[in-house]
Amino acid sequence: MLVSVIIAAYNSEAYIAEAIESVLGQTVPAGEVIVIDDGSTDGTSDILARLGDRIIALNQTNSGQSVAVNKGLAMARGELIGFCDADDLWTARKLELQLALLERNSDVEAVFGKVQQFVSPDVPEHQRERLKPAVEIMPGELKQCMLIRRDALDRAGPFDESLPATFFIAWLGRAKQGGLKGAHVDDVVVRRRLHLGNGGRTNTEAQNRETLLALRKAIKARRPPE
Fold first, then answer.
1. C-alpha to C-alpha distance for 8 and 44, rounded to whole angstroms
2. Positive or negative, the Cα torsion across 19, 76, 70, 62?
3. What is the pLDDT along the chain (226 residues), one digit of tens a residue?
4. In CATH, what class is 3-222?
5. Which single residue of 95, 127, 189, 211 could bond 113 by disulfide (Cβ 3.0 to 4.6 Å)?
6. What is the reported pTM?
7. Contacts of 78 by beta carbon, 8 Å cutoff, 6+ apart
8. Residue 127: how many CB atoms within 10 A of its CB?
9. Where are the beta strands (DSSP E) in 62-132?
10. 14 and 93 in contact (C-beta within 8 Å)?
């Protein structure tokens, strides 16, 4: 089965090459890697150009990660879909382990795994302690940890572009309400980089507002029509 991997990038020159290489270096390779540059103003586009035909690179006017990911999905040809964030890393056997589980269990639609959080080496020493995670390794129901059958993804609908920071949380809740059959591999599949530019750490108030909005939408969707 063809695996399409989607990466949205915005001003990611410090980390994007390493993220893409972690996807390209899988023990079982993906069929295509689609990178959407969300209007970066740094050197991201130059890095993508240097990767040549190893990836499919597209540009868009800065519109947010959810818009970029939906654009990548519209292009993807794979029967299976994976995601990587532009500052995170896939472990080398992520696809191998998740594909094996999907092949063994035809009723499973989405596979997750564990995530290992680490403070990025470029964080200054005096800032490292405040970024240190309370838990280093934990189960990861995150976009970048998921490999999903395309038909199951489409059944839950596109990502909500009105929720740029919490669109995956909202989507996953909707997918579970719709009966998404998920499973987990007992291995670290993603290394999540903690750095000074993490949106959830630098703009927590906005993210909290979006989370509340996503919860309200989910509750409203579950109410029977009057």
1. 11
2. positive
3. 899 999 999 999 999 999 999 999 999 999 999 999 999 999 999 999 999 999 999 999 999 999 999 999 999 999 999 999 999 999 999 999 999 999 999 999 999 999 999 999 999 999 999 999 999 999 999 999 999 999 999 999 999 999 988 999 999 999 999 999 999 999 999 999 999 988 654 444 554 454 455 545 554 555 455 5
4. alpha beta
5. 189
6. 0.88
7. 1, 2, 3, 4, 30, 31, 32, 150
8. 11
9. 80-83, 89-90, 110-119
10. no
Q: What single-letter amino acid sits at 22?
A: S
Cα(177)–Cα(170) distance, rounded to whole angstroms?
A: 11
Tokens of 212: 């509340």
Task: Report residue 184 as tokens.
Answer: 């987990």
